[in-house]
């Protein structure tokens, strides 16, 4: 298996980009990535996206973005795994390069949700759930996660405030990230006094609705130094699925697809959770953060709040989490999120993260998922220079 | 690059499956494929689909089908390249196995269009075109192809009847295919007297709206004989894109993405068009057949009718075309079509094609595309036993 490097990245700010289309956003991120490196060509494009068909009346966006970028006739198609589309696109790009079929590959994610703000976006996002057994009955992801958060608080006696305090940390990080949608700090009361979305989930427990695109460029590790002075290796990559409806799960509080994807990625990278210097995790709701950190092996089950108050997830903690601000503050353009996470880890590993820069980070982990982890993608990146 | 075999296939009949859901159809095809071979496990699933979000309110169908099949927690996600989704899924599966990341992979396509019969399906399929410059103005694929067919007839002086006679041939083949949606013969008058869809395109120039799923199982070539007595190799595979809107093309009558994808596939398989024993081509409209056969190198440009009347495309001709009946008669469940084509070639190569069986076929070609070839997938299969 040919080893795979990531030699560049590009992102748009996550925002309500009323005046930019899907192809504008994707092209902006791609050109940023391409302009940083010295590559002779691009061989293929993989685009993660969930909602363009529903909210922009556009399918076939692999071709749409290849055309807009002037990259025709290279192969380009779309990858969809709901909110895990970005992570699935990274996996696709990894296989494309590691197979030897393609050498230099653009992997991106793009989403434009604000065209469908309100019920239209919520319904479209709900299609990540089981239509027949969940969405049809009016359930949303806020309500599914509310059930799980209520149970978590009851089983583990974790106070509701802990979730608010995690959101506070996310906003503290995001306030220093120029790509973040919500670049401001909040306090515990901001969360607790915000509107109920689905009790006990408040508005500030939720990632915002936003638009954005993130892109990375992959190539064989052995060629990477020809194209760029600094790059990272995809040292481990794992993916797994879980039941599409949460009612079929034996244990509501164990996100098994994350656990399995992470174990596969750790094994491939020959590392353990304690070797990871920083992580970008999928905190679409604050409860997702708790369960993700536990499934990734960064916290024992039910002890998310203990580690939070020990400062473990702070920028100078044991395992800095979401220095970007995470989905909560950086934003969650769903099909792009998994690629944003990878780009943010690379920024840190290469020392390009500005005000949020961590010292001496060598190994980073990104965890992306669909819905309540009905599928998951875990990628481990290692600094190479 | 690890060489890749296809060891099994399964299909549902293409039909109006009112009583079967996407997951029912996909599972039926998958279980047929799995039950034919002796495999210890499946490592991943790739699902080609275009319209489930629009017509079935279901995204994330990679997880949906993995769950329904009882195959959780293996990785499973969706590939979308409009009507080329099946071909793109085959390419994804090829890279997955050839990279060495996965060994035994299920690649399938599924589509359920009849839930949206009428305007809803037509609009959903139109999202393969450029929304901003084509679909927004009310254009459909019938009207885009009508423009091209009119031009073809004018430039090459090909009579309208030739397209009707191609449809007659497709129905003659499809009448003998138990998986075909339209299992009956027609004559020239059936086509010429059918309703106008978009002049000069008549109803019988068009593929029908239908539901179905097709699945194949891929594994490393070196392992194939452990799992099955008979199998084929993916000897060549190519893909390319073209402008999303047809107005931007220099030559309306040259489907460049097919030409480039085919040349890449021929080169990889070290064969030329004259080595191909049979082909399944993407005749969503009869004009597509003419342009596809020319771009694939089976006919000189503008001479489609000459070869047709020479009998070249007949079952006993120079290059038997669409022994399945093609999209015209077998049917066109869009995201599944590219996988149906592969399954049909395998049936022929392995001598399992029943009444349509060709003698001594060794090399087959499948050509799948999106819209008016805004992207294309060409796969060349070689018999191995």
From TrEMBL, chains A, B:
Checking InterPro entries in the record gives: Thiolase, Thiolase-like, Thiolase_C_2, Thiolase_N
CDD domains hit by this protein: SCP-x_thiolase (cd00829)
* Signal sequence range: none
Gene3D superfamilies given for it? 3.40.47.10
Q: Keywords, A to Z?
A: Isoprene biosynthesis
For molecular function, the Gene Ontology terms on record are: acyltransferase activity, transferring groups other than amino-acyl groups
Q: Name one Pfam family in it.
A: Thiolase_N
According to the entry, every stretch annotated as the Thiolase C-terminal domain falls at: 238-383
Q: Where is the Thiolase N-terminal domain?
A: 4-220
GO BP annotations of the record are:
isoprenoid biosynthetic process
What is the name listed in the Swiss-Prot or TrEMBL entry for this protein? Thiolase domain-containing protein
Q: Which organism is it from?
A: Thermoproteota archaeon
């Amino acid at each position: 298996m040919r080893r795979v490097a990531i030699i560049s990245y590009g992102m748009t700010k996550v925002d309500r980009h009323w005046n930019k289309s899907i192809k504008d956003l994707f092209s902006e991120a791609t050109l940023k990535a391409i302009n940083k490196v010295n590559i002779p060509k691009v061989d293929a494009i993989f685009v993660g996206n969930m909602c363009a068909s529903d909210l922009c009346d556009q399918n076939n966006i692999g071709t749409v973005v290849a055309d807009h970028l002037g990259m025709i006739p290279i192969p380009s198609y779309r990858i969809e795994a709901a909110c895990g589309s970005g992570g699935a696109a990274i996996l696709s790009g990894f296989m494309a390069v590691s197979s030897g079929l393609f050498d230099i590959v653009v992997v991106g994610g793009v989403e434009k949700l604000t065209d469908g703000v309100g019920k239209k976006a919520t319904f479209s996002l709900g299609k990540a759930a089981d239509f027949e057994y969940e969405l049809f009955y009016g359930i949303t992801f806020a309500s599914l996660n509310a059930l799980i958060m209520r149970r978590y608080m009851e089983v583990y006696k974790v106070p509701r405030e802990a979730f608010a305090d995690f959101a506070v940390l996310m906003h503290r990080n995001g306030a220093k990230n120029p790509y973040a949608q919500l670049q401001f700090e909040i306090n515990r009361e901001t969360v607790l006094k915000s509107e109920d979305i689905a009790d006990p989930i408040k508005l500030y427990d939720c990632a915002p609705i936003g638009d954005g695109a993130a892109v990375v460029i992959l190539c064989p590790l052995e060629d990477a130094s020809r194209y760029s002075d600094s790059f990272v290796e995809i040292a481990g990559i794992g993916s797994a699925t879980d039941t599409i409806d949460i009612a079929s799960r034996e244990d509501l509080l164990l996100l098994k697809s994350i656990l399995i994807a992470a174990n596969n990625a750790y094994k491939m990278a020959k590392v353990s959770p304690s070797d990871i210097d920083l992580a970008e995790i999928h905190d679409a709701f604050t409860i997702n953060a708790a369960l993700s950190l536990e499934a990734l092996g960064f916290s024992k089950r039910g002890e998310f709040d203990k580690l939070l108050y020990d400062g473990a997830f702070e920028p100078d903690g044991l395992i800095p989490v979401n220095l970007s601000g995470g989905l909560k503050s950086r934003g969650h353009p769903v099909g792009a999120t998994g690629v944003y996470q990878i780009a943010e880890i690379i920024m840190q590993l290469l020392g390009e993260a500005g005000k949020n820069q961590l010292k001496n980070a060598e190994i980073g982990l990104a965890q992306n998922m669909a819905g309540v982890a009905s599928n998951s993608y875990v990628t481990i990146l290692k600094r190479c220079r």
